[in-house]
Amino acid sequence: MHSYDYALIIAFLAMVLLPAPLLGRFYFRVMEGQRTWLSPIIGPVERSCYRLSGVDPKEQQSWQRYALALLAFNLAGFVILFAILLGQGVLPLNGQNLPGLEWTLAFNTAVSFVTNTNWQSYSGEASLSYLSQMAGLTVQNFVSAATGLAVLVALCRGIGQRSASSIGNFWVDMTRATLYGLLPLCLVLALVLVWQGVPQTFSHYISSVTLQGVDQVIPLGPAASQIAIKQLGTNGGGFFGANSAHPFENPTAWSGLFELVAIILIPAALVFTFGHYVKDLRQSRAIMGCMLALLLIGGAVAVWSEYQPVPGGDASLVQQAAPLEGKETRFGTTASALWAVTTTAASNGSVNAMHDSLNPLTGLVAMANMMVGEVIFGGVGAGLYGMLLNVLIAVFLAGLMIGRTPEYLGKKLQAREVQLLVATLLVMPIGTLVLGAIAASLPGPAGAVSNPGPHGFSQLLYAYTSASANNGSAFGGFSANTAFHNLMLSLAMFIGRFGYILPVLALAGGLAIKKTAPVGPNSFPTHGLLFVTLLGVTILLVGGLTFLPTLALGPIAEHLSLAF
To answer: pTM above 0.90?
Structure first.
C-alpha cells in the first residue's frame, strides 16, 4: 500500500464520522416536525403535499395502521413500476426505441427497487429508457429509502416514548424523510457529480468511430440524479451496467471518494438520531463503536487479502503493485477493496470492481457483512433497526446470564417481544439457505453458475444472500436473468424486506405501550465497552452459527485450495 491508499481510508472515515452527529440531530428535528434551517424553503412544499393527498399531519397511527399504510404505498409503487417496465416500448423518452422488459425480468426489477435492493439482472443502458430510469427507478430509490427511515423512526419512538398507543404517521414520516432527509443531499451530490463529469442529459446515444475504426455507441442519459440517490439512499442500482466502475458513473478519484462516503453517510448519522430519541447519546456512541469495529475488522481482512500474491505468480511483483484482475485500474486495489466492504456493510450494492474476481477472503467478508443482516451501518433506516434488533437480543441474553428480566432503556422485554425477535432471526436463513438450496439442487437453475467448485457455489450463495439482505450486488459470473431466478430472487427480496419491517413495527407498537421503568444501579448498562463487546459477539455468533457451514463450502474452501 502507498501513502495515497492510507490517505483515502483516513479521508473516507473522517468525511463520514465528523458530520454524522450534526446530521443525526438534524434528522431528529426533521422527523419530529421541529423547525430547521430548511423549514422556510421546504415547509410550504411539505404542507402542500399534505393538502393535495388529504393527509392530516397531526393524526397518529397505531402500529397496525402504520403497517397497512406502508404496505399499501409499497404495493402501489410496485404496480406502477411494473407497468412502466412492461410498457416502456410505447412510452415517451425512449430515444433508443427499447422494448418493454420480459415479464419475469420486469417483475424482478420492480420488486428489487421497491424493496431497496436494486438487484439488476439487466444492463441499464441496453435495456431501460430514460423514462423507466427516472419515473420508475429513481422515484423508487427515494421512496424505498424513505420507507426504511420511517420504520426506524417508528421503532425509535416505540423505545423512547412512555406508554403511548401510537408510533407516528407513516405518510408524514415518509414525506419528511424524502423532502428533508434525502432530496437536499441528493441535489448537492448530483451537482458535484456533474461537475466531475457525470452526464445529466436527455440527448440520444452518440455513435462514434474508435481509433481502431470500429463503430461504437456511447450511452448517455440523466445519470447524475440517479447516481446521487442510489448512493445516499443505499440503493446501489447503476444507471449503466458496469455500475460505479463505469467512467460515466464514476469519472474521477474525487467522484469515487464522494460516492463512497455517500454510501454510509446517512446510516451513520441515524445512529445519533436514535440517541436523541432516547435522550441518551451514550447509546449512539456504543452502537457506533460496534459498527465501526466490525467495519474496520472486515476492511482490514479484505485489503490484506487483495494484496496477497496470486498462487504460482511472482511474489516480488506484488511488492510493487497488488493484483489488479477484476479491479477498476483507475482507482486501484485499496479503493476497490474498501468499496466492496463498504457497499456490503451498507445495503447499497453498488460496485466499482468485479466482485467475482475478489480473492476468497474478501468475498467471505462481503458475504458475512450481508449475512449478519447488514447491520454494520446497513441501509437508510434498515441498518439501524436491524442493529437495534441485535441490541435487544444481546440484552435478552444478558438477562438470561444474570437471572434478571431483560430490559432496554427501561422497557422490559417479555414473551411477545422475544417471539418477534426470534421471527426476525429466521429471515436471512429462509431467504439465503432455503431458497438458495432449492436453486442449487435443481439442474436448470444451477446452470446459472459459470465456475466449477467452491467458487461456483459462492456465486449462487452470494446471489441469494444479496437478495435476502436487500443489497443487490452480485458475483458477476452468475447468470441470473432466467425465469426461475428472477422469480426466486424476487421472493428472497420480498422476504428480506418485509420479513423485518412487519416484526419491527409490531415491536415498536408493543414497546410504545409499555411504561418506562427507571434505570437503577442494578440495571445492565448498555453503553459501555462490556455491552459493545457482547453486542459484537452476538452479531457474529448468530450469523456465524447460521451460515458457517455454507461459507465453508464456498469462500473458505476456495481459500484453502489456493495453497495446493
So the answer is: yes
